[in-house]
Fold this protein.
Amino acid sequence: MKRMNEYIQLITDSGSGLSAKEAAALDVAVMPMDIHIGGKTYQEGIDISPEAYFALAEPMHDDIPRVTSPSVEKWQRLYNSFAGQVTHLLVVTQSSHLSNAFQMAEQATAYLTGKTQIVVVDSETISYNQQTLLRIVAQAIHEGQPFAEVVQILRGSIPHTYAEFFNDSLLYLQRHRRLGVAQAILGTMLEIKPLLLLDGGDFIPLEKILQWEDATPKLMGFIQEFTHVESVTVVQRGFDALTAELVALLKEEYLQEIEYPVASYNPSLAVHIGPQAFGVMVYEGLPKRGFI
């Protein structure tokens, strides 16, 4: 992506969930994350698809999948593959609380050859909200914004992404140390469904429900707290009926002028929320200039 004497290359990790076609359209280079499941390691989006991941994850109870970043050396090779071709690299990683992608990508900058300027930014989110940030950045570059302004736009957009999810298992919370063992055991006995808020880049157990029928009004209430949003993606797997109910409510009682796409999710997100989850990812947009 070129602007006068600047040529900016956008880089992200596969936690964004961008397809190869989407990445090519945005001119984004994607670093595949390592997915560890069933005693094996796979490259996300390369040798394991979401469908293949869920086929492996659903029967498993004791071996909770993990996601890790490729080595510093792999990030270094990716950076150096653009040496002499670009003046700036902008790297947008999934939240540093959800994997070590940001740390590895940042460490690799020390080995960058040539005069290319590089900035690594922790998106504090993942999946569709990470995609939203990438699209905002790609648009700013396309409009010819200077690199410093592009980075500022990105950093300014990050605090305006939000996500909430219900899932059907406390095991993932417990294994990722977001819930104590005793709480997880008791909650499982009571068939509690936790509500997770992605806050400050990490998933925090916010509250709970006992019946799945309560999930839709809870998510609806969360969205209605926003007086304005630019995008709402309903993210789910295994909850088609609840999803249809939520989308119908949004179209009837919330904003009619925007679409409410429904999508499944990728392994980088699934390792945190499990293979059965129902939630929303929201981008409210930047405040209007002059708004106080």
Summary: Residues 127-142 form the longest helix (16 residues). The domain at 160-283 is CATH 3.30.1180.10 (Hypothetical Protein Tm841; Chain: A;domain 3). The chain has two domains: 2-159, 160-283. The CA atoms of residues 11 and 91 lie 5 Å apart.
